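tokens incoming
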């Protein structure tokens, strides 16, 4: 009999963890060897348990799932990570795959598909449902925002003016205005309001 797939579960919602235990625990081919609700504990638990698969949420207290994935993959380039999240933006998918995750599922995924994805990832295969592939296809080429432009966009989402953006980031108001212009161009929108809406829809900015 093949050895069971050893899973590290990184999920802060107790109901979601319980649901995953309900799916995984009865199976002889899988076992949850460790779990945490905090992103900043994920890398240490990976070091300790060396799991075959990590199931990672993205919205976590302390440290986001995005950052936790990057840290784990930096230390363990062969780590196999499956993202299970409520985030459904094309930029979320893009960032996660760039960080090194091998699968991206939303939390409305059915039991059988989740099991299929876990087994695929454990074998070193990428798993992307057709709906996730469609999100990636919608992502505009050349729309990659710089880190500074993302900082500006997050401030715009809070209603900041160019002056407030400039003061917050320690740049001139003219530079802030140039950043805003570049953001509008890259997102293919006409004004700041449309930029914020597009950013939220695509997962560039999250409003909790």
């Amino acid at each position: 009999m093949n050895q069971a797939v050893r899973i590290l579960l990184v999920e802060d919602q107790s109901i979601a963890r319980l649901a995953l235990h309900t799916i995984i625990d009865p199976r002889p081919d899988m076992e949850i060897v460790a779990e945490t609700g905090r992103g900043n504990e994920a890398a240490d638990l990976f070091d300790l348990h060396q799991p075959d698969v990590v199931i990672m949420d993205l919205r976590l207290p302390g440290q986001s799932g995005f950052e936790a994935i990057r840290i784990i993959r930096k230390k363990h380039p062969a780590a196999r990570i499956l993202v299970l999240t409520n985030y459904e933006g094309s930029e979320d998918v893009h960032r996660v795959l760039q960080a090194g995750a091998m699968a991206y599922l939303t939390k409305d995924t059915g039991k059988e598909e989740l099991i299929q994805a876990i087994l695929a990832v454990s074998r070193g295969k990428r798993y992307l449902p057709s709906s996730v592939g469609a999100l990636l296809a919608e992502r505009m080429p050349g729309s990659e925002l710089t880190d500074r432009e993302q900082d500006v966009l997050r401030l715009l989402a809070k209603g900041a003016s160019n002056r407030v953006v400039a003061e917050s980031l320690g740049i001139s108001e003219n530079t802030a205005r140039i950043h805003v212009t570049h953001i509008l161009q890259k997102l293919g929108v006409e004004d700041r309001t449309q930029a914020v809406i597009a950013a939220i829809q695509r997962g560039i900015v999250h409003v909790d």
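note: The CA atoms of residues 40 and 99 lie 16 Å apart.
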